[in-house]
Amino acid sequence: MHTLPRPQRQPAAWGITAGLIGFIVLVSSVSGTDSRGMTALLVGGMAVGLGSVVAWALARARAARTQYEDALTQWAAANAVQAERLAIARELHDLASHGLGMITVRAAAARYTAANPAGAGEDPQAALADIETIARQATTELRRMVQVLRSPDQAAPLQPTATLADLPALVAAVAVGGVDAHLQLTAADNIGPDLAPTVCALVREGLANVVRHAAPTTATVTVDATGPHVRLTITDAGPAPGRTAQPVGPGAGQGLAGARERATAVGGSLQAGPCGPGWQLEASLPRQVTP
């Protein structure tokens, strides 16, 4: 984010008054003005000088304030643009990761089955049908995002707002990617509508990572809102016997970075790392969303 501009301090102009008083004293000394006349000249000169200084200072203060307000407006606009870019980056990552990533996994599974017809595997036709369905969904989402971006006056979000009612479907959806996931949701009523989209987004990202790097496997999604913080964990059992975890490719890590940004945006935290033979993503989110 851009740094908030600070108003510049303007130097005082007391030198003008001092110079004017000195000039009056010099003129009075040369002209032989008596003490009363000199006092009157000094008082009048000081009044004129102070008035000039005050007028000058007010003008400089108004100019400085205007300059600061302009800089503040530019700063706010730049930060709004950057925040919007981050939001677009997260949504595009979701589209590429959860759509194209799932297609990649299903295509790899079909290729594995074709190369090992004698081994246990799924019907390649089923994998192709899943690929077609996922591709259609991704295309629809991409078109909707483009429509929103081309309509700046449209107030619709880049993605429809998810609710806790969507969690079971999000968890079940990874089955086509070879992940048998189970959801444990506790005290769901304590999760407000402001926090629910973040919870859903973190679950979606965590399961997408499981599909990409560990499938076929099993995973457990736990969302517990009994305390002041919502505790979210996604733990997988690691790749199935005979399979190895998919290596991390170039550009990887953007999804985890985006997940941390989502958690931080609501005043929470997120960490991820190895857990036994598998991997665990863990987030702590305050039930009261930080503005």
From TrEMBL:
Domain Histidine kinase/HSP90-like ATPase: 201-272
Keyword Oxidoreductase assigned: no
EC number: 2.7.13.3
Pfam family, any one: HisKA_3
Highest taxon of the lineage: Bacteria
Signal peptide segment: none
Sequence ranges assigned to domain Signal transduction histidine kinase subgroup 3 dimerisation and phosphoacceptor in this UniProt record: 84-153
Chain segments carrying region Disordered: 237-256, 270-291
Catalytic activity, as annotated: ATP + protein L-histidine = ADP + protein N-phospho-L-histidine
Ranges that cross the membrane: 12-32, 38-59
Keywords, comma-separated and alphabetical: ATP-binding, Kinase, Membrane, Nucleotide-binding, Phosphoprotein, Transferase, Transmembrane, Transmembrane helix, Two-component regulatory system
Name this protein carries in UniProt: histidine kinase
Organism annotation: Buchananella hordeovulneris
